[in-house]
Design a protein that fits this description.
90 residues; alpha+beta; Urease, subunit C, domain 1; 4-stranded antiparallel sheet; 3 helices; 4 strands
Length: 90
């Protein structure tokens, strides 16, 4: 917020606009996952995992439409499985 940025004497934070340092996460709330939630925020925080729909880190888009923009999720999952097997007894 602007007040917090002022206290820290930072003009590069405190608002969501071009040129500002900001991380912003957006979740969809119109799916079945939250269909029974009366309080959508509580549903997101207290419910099961929910895939972020859009994520900007330092003003750069990292996730769009629920998918990583600059990485291959299938490749990451394969690498994860390979590494996980290292911990299984042989």
């Amino acid at each position: 917020t602007r007040g917090g940025a002022a206290v820290l004497h930072r003009d590069d934070i405190g608002s969501i606009e071009p040129g500002q340092q900001a991380d912003l996460a957006v979740w969809r709330t119109d799916g079945l996952e939250l269909g029974g939630a009366v309080d959508l925020v509580a549903g997101l925080v207290l419910g099961g995992p929910h895939r972020v729909d859009r994520l900007l880190v330092g003003g750069e888009e990292v996730v769009r439409g629920g998918a990583l923009v600059r990485a291959d999720e299938a490749e990451i999952a394969r690498d994860h499985r390979v590494q996980a097997r290292r911990f299984l007894p042989t």
